[in-house]
Amino acid sequence: MRQRFSPDYYINGILTGDRLILSRAITLVESSRPDDQALAQQVLEGVLPHTGGSVRVGITGVPGVGKSTFIEAFGTYLTNVGHRLAVLAVDPSSQRSGGSLLGDKTRMETLSTNPNAYIRPSPASGALGGVAHRTRETMLLCEAAGFDVILVETVGVGQSETVVHGMVDFFLLLMLAGAGDELQGMKRGIMELADALCITKADGDNVANADRARVEYQNALHLFPPTDTGWFPPVLTGSALTGMGVADVWQTIQEHQTLTAQNGHRTQRRQQQQLSWFKGLLQQRLSQNFYARPGIADRLTALEEQIKNGTMLPSQAVDTLFTAIVP
Ligand SMILES: Nc1nc2c(ncn2[C@@H]2O[C@H](COP(=O)(O)OP(=O)(O)OP(=O)(O)O)[C@@H](O)[C@H]2O)c(=O)[nH]1
Ligand SMILES: [Mg+2]
Fold first, then answer.
1. pLDDT per residue over 165-206, tens digit each?
2. Domain 51-263 is classified in which CATH homologous superfamily?
């Protein structure tokens, strides 16, 4: 039985930047137990006025592109210039024990012992919606604890990158030089989401390759319809090994933030994200509520039988179900 603490214990602990209490609060947020969830909501409400103050950055790219190594270099750079950084992960597809970041603590050796960095391994895999919902709340807790840059790492396969895009101010896509788009499992869609591309591993023999890839991708991006934000996603090159380009990425993020803060798109983006978070939760609740109603399971089974036999149309079945439960 885990020890129970009061909401104030968590709230005060987080606001004074106590990392142990922050970790405990995140565990609470990640718990699916109803009593934990109720307490987590109280804690979140308590810290809410102290949230929103960070730059939220999503980082994605195919496995092996160098996300973790980049975050180690980038994170170290950020703390060196005076920032406090939290690293979170959305990795629902991960079959690796404990999610990617846990094993990655070794790859983020410097960062994991850095007093100005906080690395939180991804929660145990579950429904994508559930994981994302917790990452959003974890982000709020980290902001309340005084972290002013939040990095959210996700593997760029599947739909998790869309989910992460929906919770950050800036979305960075890491790419490899030399590997074809198909090879990178990249769909055009994910490039369209990116606020910047960075060609990784631009060191040693790979520098010329990386420069070539930069030009190619920059040309490819020009073919995309422009967004209404006034921002044109640049393509950068970088090396986590030599540190080349790491400062440029931060420079780019700052330019993007300045521009979108001035023209209102930063606020607009966050407002849209809040709304879709709300709508997602509402939909989840409605559907849970629906399926939990007495008699629904039996009715469903019966209707599904008729649909399979072709004796009822799906639309008809939906009507029947709704007239039965909504008077
Ligand atoms: N030469 C060179 N190698 C790098 C660089 N960054 C990463 N690597 C190597 O590329 C490999 C993959 O790096 P990771 O950082 O684990 O990649 P990842 O994107 O986090 O991979 P997953 O967590 O599996 O999705 C490792 O062997 C790194 O040492 C770089 O800047 N230059
Ligand atoms: Mg990794």
1. 999 999 999 999 876 655 455 567 788 899 999 999 999 999
2. P-loop containing nucleotide triphosphate hydrolases (3.40.50.300)
State whether the beta carbon of 67 lies less than 6 angstroms from ligand 1.
Answer: yes
Return the best residue to mutate from 68, 105, 151 for the ligand 1 pocket (most ligand atoms within 8 A of CB): 68
CA 275 to ligand 2 centroid distance, Å: 30
Closest atom of ligand 1 relative to the 61 alpha carbon: 19
How large is the average pLDDT for residues 146-170? 87
Q: Where does the pLDDT of residue 98 fall: very low under 50, low under 70, confident under 90, or very high at 90 and above? A: very low
Whole-number Å distance, alpha carbon 218 to ligand 2 midpoint, is: 25
Report how far ligand 2's centroid is from the alpha carbon of 198 (Å). 16
pLDDT digits (tens, 9 = 90+) for 14-36: 999 999 999 999 999 988 888 99
If you measure from the C-alpha of residue 201 to the centroid of ligand 1, how many angstroms do you get, rounded to a whole number? 8
Does the beta carbon of 184 sit less than 6 angstroms from any atom of ligand 1?
no
Confidence of residue 37 (pLDDT cuts 50, 70, 90): very high
For the chain, which residues make up each domain, given as ranges?
1-50, 51-263, 277-325
Q: Which atom of ligand 1 is nearest to the CA of 204?
A: 1
Please give the CATH number for the structural domain made up of 1-50: 1.20.5.170
* Intrachain domains 1-50 and 51-263 with the same fold: no
Over the chain, what HEC string results?
Answer: CCCCCCHHHHHHHHHCCCHHHHHHHHHHHHCCCHHHHHHHHHHHHHHHHHCCCCEEEEEEECCCCCHHHHHHHHHHHHHHCCCCEEEEEECCCCCCCCCHHHHHCCCCHHHHCCCCEEECCCCCCCCHHHHHHHHHHHHHHHHHCCCCEEEEEEECCCCHHHHHHCCCCEEEEEECCCCCCCCCCCCHHHHHHCCEEEECCCCHHHHHHHHHHHHHHHHHHHCCCCCCCCCCCCEEECCCCCCCCHHHHHHHHHHHHHHHHHHCHHHHHHHHHHHHHHHHHHHHHHHHHHHHCCCHHHHHHHHHHHHHHCCCCHHHHHHHHHHHHCC
